[in-house]
Amino acid sequence: MNARSAWLSRDGQTREDTRVAPLGAFTPTSPTATRSGVLPGSADGVYRVSGLALSGTSGSMTGRVAPGRAVIQSTDARGAYPVALTDPQTLTFADGDAQYGRADLVVLRIHDDVHDGSGRTEAAVEIVRGTPAASPTPPAAPDTSLPLYVVAVGAGVGAGTGGIPWDTARLDLRPTTVAVPAPTTPPPAATPATTGTSARPSSAGVPRPGCRTRRAWAGSSRPGC
User: Fold this and answer.
1) pTM score, two decimals?
2) Given strand 170-172, what is the order of strands in its sheet?
């Protein structure tokens, strides 16, 4: 299995598992929880997010998920699962229904037998097959999973009928998550409001929320937006 998750296996964790898993790359959503998402970045800098990208083989029902790293948050008590896909993962989609199209969901999923009774203890890239319908909608994401893509599978589509039109059939759902640096100084006190203007703290010397977050992974040291 290419997908690795640190602090998950009951049989032992390899040094490689520990090194590649993205520990510390968290966007907090509460004091004890983090935002699930893919770690941004690319080898050549062309794309902001290249990890876990889905591409397809022309004329086929086969797709490929690129290597990447992610964090999947469960409940506060279970914590967040760091995951790394170190080699491309091939996925084969089922042929389309004879009458209706469907919307399949591609997810990065955690199976943790201690908590879900699945009999599995691993991370995996999976297809959650949708239900054929006149107006198909994607299925709900399983518990402790990260939605990556929706793939439209048209009626009658198969390897022998041209396959999935990958350029138009993919909908990218990948959220991102990054480490958020804390301000080194507290924000200044709010200034009194004037007529028609709400009181707000001065932003001098202190980045507004989200501004440094968007720049941090890009290596920029410029404060603010």
Assistant:
1) 0.74
2) 121-128, 102-112, 145-153, 170-172
